[in-house]
Amino acid sequence: MLYLEDYLEMIEHLPQELRDRFTEMREMDLSVQRDIQTEQADTEFSDIKRGYNKTIEEADEKMALSNQMFDRFKIRADKRQRESSWVARESRAHSSSSNISRTDTIQMQHGRRTASLKATYEAVAGGELAHHALHAHHGAQHEHGAQPPAAVRTSALRPACLRTRIKPWPPRAAPPRPLSAMNVVANAVEVAEPMEEEWTYDPNEPRYCICNQVSYGDMVACDNQDCPYEWFHYPCVGITAPPKGKCIAAEPRV
């Protein structure tokens, strides 16, 4: 009986002990589950952190590349702006120099044309006056039967081919109309019209004709090799078309 009492006394606290042990086991299971979830969360957090750091690095690389491209484009834009400003300055300088040279050319051409027209006016006026003087002397010759020395000297300056084609003058009629200044200017303008074309004037250019001027317009050559004038302007010798045959200018008679 003693043993039975001891046994009953011992098993009397058994349910409480079992409950305590089961509770302890459940707590251990919960702690294990909590530990497992924490490790998984830590792993996931580590993965997320690594991805974030990688994204930050890639973003920094992109920013560096974009800054490099911006710097390059800025350098190219500044270079093109400098080139365009330089080209604009060069074009303005070229246009200003062209305007200056064009002004000098126009002034030079105007001076050339003025000198040419002046020479033409003088030559035409001299030729017309000599021509009228020759007419007057021919009229006096028909009246008196003799030719004054002035007429001889004037005719001697004309080419021989022109003198041979001069017809005898008819008996004296009405006196010739005096040559007015307007007629001289009008004839000079008509003669000067072909001279509107540009030509280069050289101060050292040789002089020809009895007017001692440079060559211009239409001219007739003298076939005499010893002729000091060599060429004659049409207005100075009183012709408008090339003569037929040889033209030889006689020396002035004294």
Automatic annotation (TrEMBL):
Compartments, as annotated in UniProt: Nucleus
Site entry (Histone H3K4me3 binding), positions: 208, 219, 223, 231
Gene3D superfamilies, per the entry: 6.10.140.1740, Zinc/RING finger domain, C3HC4 (zinc finger)
Protein name per Swiss-Prot or TrEMBL: Inhibitor of growth protein
Keywords: Chromatin regulator, Metal-binding, Nucleus, Transcription, Transcription regulation, Zinc, Zinc-finger
Species per Swiss-Prot/TrEMBL record: Operophtera brumata
InterPro entries: ING_fam, ING_N_histone-binding, Znf_FYVE_PHD, Znf_PHD, Znf_RING/FYVE/PHD
Zinc finger PHD-type domain location: 208-248
Primary location: nucleus
GO molecular function: zinc ion binding
Top-level taxon: Eukaryota
CDD domains xrefs: PHD_ING
GO cellular component, one term: NuA4 histone acetyltransferase complex
Gene Ontology process terms (BP): chromatin organization
Basic and acidic residues bias (residue ranges): 81-93
UniProt-annotated stretches for the region Disordered: 81-102
